[in-house]
Design brief:
The protein has about 140 residues and is mainly α. It has one domain (about 30-140): Winged helix-like DNA-binding domain superfamily/Winged helix DNA-binding domain (Arc Repressor Mutant, subunit A). The chain contains seven helices and three strands, in the order αααβααββαα. It has helices at about 5-10, 15-35, 40-50, 55-65, 65-80, 100-120, 125-140; strands at about 55, 85-90, 90-100. It has a three-stranded antiparallel sheet with strand order 1-3-2. Strand 2 (about 85-90) and strand 3 form a beta hairpin. Helix 2 packs across helix 6 (about 100-120), helix 3 (about 40-50) packs across helix 6 and helix 4 (about 55-65) crosses helix 5 (about 65-80). The protein starts with 6 loop residues before the first helix and ends with a helix.
């Protein structure tokens, strides 16, 4: 008896992606848990770093996150000193989220640990295959 799944499943992209996502999720959770962070914290820090000061609504749209989840995580990040919110000069009713120096350091720390975990995930692949995998996944995602 072997642990090999049925061949039909091994030829089904959705099944393969689900299996890989489960393993990747476990690795990511271990990293986030060890750092006292979460995937939404990381995603928000990434967005604010790359796109500069932006509203919570914009963060939600870019990350495909629910507005309530964004708001809650921004409050948590603000409490840790990783982001700050201030009024938008163009529209004082709107708050812009900015990355702080502490937040940039936190982002670098999470990114380094997460990158190491991702390297373990794709270890069986060559550098060219890794680049191809990322390109294929981005294409499927619609980027």
């Amino acid at each position: 008896m072997t642990d090999q799944p049925p061949q039909r499943l091994l030829e089904t992209p959705s099944w393969l992606l689900t299996q890989i996502a489960a393993g990747a999720g476990r690795r990511s959770r271990e990293v986030f848990d060890s750092l006292g962070a979460g995937r939404y914290h990381y995603a928000i820090l990434c967005a604010v770093e790359e796109f500069g000061p932006c509203s919570q609504a914009e963060i939600g749209r870019r990350l495909r996150m629910d507005r309530k989840d964004v708001a809650q995580r921004v409050v948590e990040l603000e409490g840790e000193g990783c982001v700050e919110r201030s009024s938008d000069p163009a529209d004082p009713r709107r708050k812009l989220v900015r990355l702080t120096t502490r937040g940039a350091g936190r982002l670098d720390e999470i990114h380094a640990r997460l990158t190491a975990a991702q390297e373990e995930l794709v270890e069986p692949l060559t550098a060219e295959q890794r680049a191809g995998l990322i390109a294929a996944l981005q294409k499927i995602l619609g980027r």
